[in-house]
Amino acid sequence: MSIIDEIRSKAKSLNKTIVLPESEDSRILEAVQELIKEKIVKVILIGETDKIQQDAKENKININGAEIISVNDERYKDAFAEKYYELRKKKGISLDDAKKAMQSSIFFAAMLVKENLADGYVAGSISTTGDTLRPAIQILKTAPGIKTVSSYFLMVVQDKSFGINGSLLFADCAVVPDPSAEQLAEIAICTAQNCKKLLGVDPKVAMLSFSTKGSAKHESLDKVIEATNIVKETHPEITIDGEIQFDAAIIPKVAQKKAPGSPIEGQANVLIFPDLNSGNIAYKAVQRLAKAEAIGPVVQGTARPINDLSRGCSVSDIVNTVAITALAT
Question: What is the DSSP code (8-state) at residue 143?
Fold first, then answer.
């Protein structure tokens, strides 16, 4: 069974409810058909019932079993606007502003999650990353003890000797351009926790740099070392090492030479990059040169699970992202 099949199977056993607010996208409707057929999650679509059903019919898509909720549903419309107003009035918004915000399907989806009517939401197939993340940050907030919203990619390489049967988590490759030491520590903590949820194994975290254990000196290394120490102090249960080079992080023989006594022993399954430049370049290089599967970016750090799709996503991408979102609950 592939890692994606395992993720879908795990999600199926949890019986979670995920909101998909971009019902006007036929790819979303196709994904809903698969999600319901495979019983991966329960689905809520945001939109007008007649239009969604007509779009599904015209595209020969079966969405029977999905719940459809309008942003104008009398059960929620005014109550959601008032609750959003209470959350944001100190930021200067009016009740009218709140009512307008709740006409956005993504803001409405975030409020469904906030009110425990759903377990998470997935958007971004026709929306920008900013439009997808903003409702989560404003309504759901960040997770306890976390101030930074970041992301990770699940990388699946053909050589099964790396990571967990070829699966590794790369972070952050999509959100935080130049994290501080504190932010880098939070990225490491969140990714380690998601490694446990997603892959079902204890994380072995490598804080990557161009130096291994003092082999080079540069001010840019200081934040990697500081971030490593923060994680060790605040989350001693996490196996972590840094600063460490990529090869010493993933190859035991190299680790024995460059980092003898390293707690990750050259068997890292979570790789934390010092900035977005290095993380984004690395995941794309591995994806193309090693013909790896890159699943993500998966958003982390929010109080409740949400995820941002690429506007070029496939139906399979949507299904996989929904399954991963269910596992993050």
Answer: P
CA distances 324 to 110, 112, 263, 299, Å, are 17, 19, 28, 10
β-bridge mates for residue 202, sequence order: none
DSSP single-letter state for residue 179 = -
What tokens appear for 329 in the block?
């609950």
The beta strand positions in the chain, using DSSP E, are: 17-20, 42-46, 67-69, 120-123, 150-156, 167-171, 204-208, 239-244, 270-272, 293-300, 306-308
Q: How far apart are CA 126 and CA 310, in angstroms?
A: 8
This prediction has a pTM of: 0.88
Largest CA distance in the chain: 66
Helix (H) or strand (E) holding 287: helix 276-289
Per-residue pLDDT tens listing for the chain (329 residues): 788 899 999 999 999 999 999 999 999 999 999 999 999 999 999 999 999 999 999 999 999 999 999 999 999 999 999 999 999 999 999 999 999 999 999 999 999 999 999 999 999 999 998 899 999 999 999 999 999 999 999 999 999 999 999 999 999 999 999 999 999 999 999 999 999 999 999 999 999 998 888 777 888 889 999 999 999 999 999 999 989 999 999 999 999 999 999 999 999 999 999 999 999 999 999 999 999 999 888 999 999 999 999 888 999 999 999 999 999 87
Phi and psi angles of residue 286, each rounded to the nearest 5 degrees, phi first = -65, -40
- What amino acid is encoded at 4 in this protein? I
> What CA–CA distance (Å, rounded) separates 88 from 100?
13
- Residue 50 to residue 187: CA distance in whole angstroms: 43
Which domains are assigned to the chain? 3-141+311-327 (3.40.50.10950), 150-295 (3.40.50.10750)
